[in-house]
């Protein structure tokens, strides 16, 4: 079991590229991680890591070891999880990567799943970018259906997502309402900053008459990489926000926000839970997917 723990430490260091960050993930001291890695290298007789004062990177042997043991460690965890069937209680851990919006939309289902399965551990990572869940050692991803790799098992867990442009009543009173998306550049557009290349999210619309796609590059005085922060800005009268409709339904009903261009709403395929096909028969995965599909 010590050897398995050493390999678990190694995979965490490989992912984090830092003893300090790996130690924080594992709940031990950086010196303990460093000592474990040194002992592992001595036992194997090969150098797995290149160390500098600021970072840790994989050697060629380390890269090969990561590629070969990652699926094996996943299989071991899957086998351990399946033992819960004999006790009548699901056990194990799921590391999930999804957008902040997906977590907000599915939160009630996450909460119910946790209450129903007290032996299950969930670790949720919020990420706007599309990640390789296998390479980054996540068990499950949740994204809109049109962005998922074809080699993954994908299960739809929500209806089509509608986008809405919203603003505070005060902002609309002061600046008026645009009649088409092409007029948006005359207003302050609250822009979402994307993590991949640092660009701003392009707003997309469907023409109400012929269904053609209209794209408008967002620009304005205010940008953030956080949807909730942009929502605060919209509520504060700083401009227009393009946002999933379910994010602002309560505010629209209360009247603290009003919808702009309602006939031009864009629709995207709904959220999907996805994971590698080797996990298809895992009891924990099956139960989690079923919980996310519940209405």
TrEMBL record:
Domain HTH lysR-type, chain residue ranges per copy: 1-59
Gene3D superfamilies: 3.40.190.290, Winged helix-like DNA-binding domain superfamily/Winged helix DNA-binding domain (1.10.10.10)
An MF annotation (GO) of this entry: DNA-binding transcription factor activity
SUPFAM superfamilies per record: Periplasmic binding protein-like II (SSF53850), Winged helix' DNA-binding domain (SSF46785)
Key words of the record: DNA-binding, Transcription, Transcription regulation
Transmembrane segments: none
InterPro entries xref list: LysR-type_TF_proteobact-type (IPR058163), LysR_HTH_N (IPR000847), LysR_subst-bd (IPR005119), WH-like_DNA-bd_sf (IPR036388), WH_DNA-bd_sf (IPR036390)
Pfam families: HTH_1, LysR_substrate
GO aspect biological process, one term: DNA-templated transcription
Family, per entry: Belongs to the LysR transcriptional regulatory family.
The protein's name: LysR family transcriptional regulator
